[in-house]
Amino acid sequence: MTATNSLGHHVVGIGIEPTTLRAKTALDGRITQGVTTIPATVARHGAELLAGVRSNDGTRDARDHRADIVERIGDAELVPLADTYYPTDYLVGRLLAALRAELIERSGPISGAVIAYPSGWTRSQRDRLALAADCGGFSEVELIPAAEAASMTPTADDYACGTGPLLLLDLGRDGGISLLDRKATRYRLRRHARLRDLVARGVFATDDTESGEAGESIIVFAKYFLRQSDCTVEALGDVRAIGVDPRDHGLLSSLARFVGGPVHVPSQPDQAIVDGATRRALTRYPAAADSDETAVHFRLGHLADLREQRGDDGAAAELRAMGDAIYESRFDMGDSAGRPGALADLLDRADALLSKYREPTREENHGRQFTRRGRG
């Protein structure tokens, strides 16, 4: 297949799910129709490691085929495939590389990507995903929680939301519930819980769902979650549901009675996460003519980008990490004569020192030699 529109500005949004990787494309500022999907499987075929569609022909020996790679990312143990062992981030990287190759074949080179990962992932899993994205060939990439991505997709009805938090109900196969706070122009994740975790803790059983009382089960789930989040229904500014059939009026009516107002649903609730990630990619990686407001002043590989500078002398700056972390730093922007900038003490939100002062060379300003040191 020949790449189309290969000279256009091409950005993508990717949704990471336990069994699939899904992507949507935006070309020259417009989101295209359709979703590209590959299975999250890898396989060994002789000496060759296959990923995605090529690995999933159903003829592989069980020892040579794995379908649990995404769920295992962050594990310290290597994954056996035939007689070879692989790190999980490398295997997920191969999946991302397979997806990237298909997207490039269809629409040309990719200028930037936003990857939405499961909202309940740990810091270790997010760090491993950053390594996997690098392995997969995505040099310009941002990682965000799936709930934040879903909050960026428009709903089927036009309405004015309140200023309070957003309660997002994911009623899909790997469902969960998220509470997000409004920060400037977007929502940021405060808390998340998976449905399966609350079932395991005995908050409620799955019998209700099996007997057709799904709405009541979700309400029990939501009440418990809001109580643990120190939030009330009255404080909510917006309630949305994704992964739900918009024609399931019984379920949506039960939820509406619980929150005392409407529950808003995207026009394509099963694509809310990947659609929102694509919309984020459009603002995160604008075309050159629109890029002044989001210029990257200093890149630390897959650790963070310096995107805001506070103070005329550049002494205070904000580094935005690949995920949802924000680091404070003292930073020297360099000078007009070309002297490289310098990164001073880098602190996370808990004021834990992550790196001491160093002066990077000009090449390091855009390279990967700067790495974050762990706490301790």
Report on this structure.
This protein has helices spanning 69-72, 88-107, 123-135, 146-151, 195-200, 207-210, 214-228, 249-259, 272-284; strands at residues 10-16, 20-27, 30-31, 36-39, 42-45, 48-51, 65-66, 79-81, 84-86, 112-117, 141-145, 166-170, 176-183, 186-194, 238-242, 298-300, 304-310, 316-321, 326-332, 342-347, 353-355. It has 376 residues and is an alpha+beta fold. The chain folds into 3 domains: 10-148 and 275-289, ATPase, nucleotide binding domain (Nucleotidyltransferase, domain 5), CATH 3.30.420.40; 157-261, 2-Layer Sandwich (Nucleotidyltransferase, domain 5); 296-366. The strands form 5 sheets. Strands 1, 2, 3, 4, 10 and 11 form a 6-stranded mixed beta sheet that branches. It has a 6-stranded antiparallel beta sheet with strand order 16-17-18-19-20-21, with no helix packed on it. It is globular and about 60 Å long.
Secondary structure layout:
Blueprint: E1 10-16, E2 20-27, E3 30-31, E4 36-39, E5 42-45, E6 48-51, E7 65-66, H1 69-72, E8 79-81, E9 84-86, H2 88-107, E10 112-117, H3 123-135, E11 141-145, H4 146-151, E12 166-170, E13 176-183, E14 186-194, H5 195-200, H6 207-210, H7 214-228, E15 238-242, H8 249-259, H9 272-284, E16 298-300, E17 304-310, E18 316-321, E19 326-332, E20 342-347, E21 353-355
Parallel strand pairs: 1-10, 10-11, 12-15
Antiparallel strand pairs: 1-2, 2-3, 2-4, 5-6, 5-7, 8-9, 12-13, 13-14, 16-17, 17-18, 18-19, 19-20, 20-21
Helix pairs in contact: 2-3, 7-8
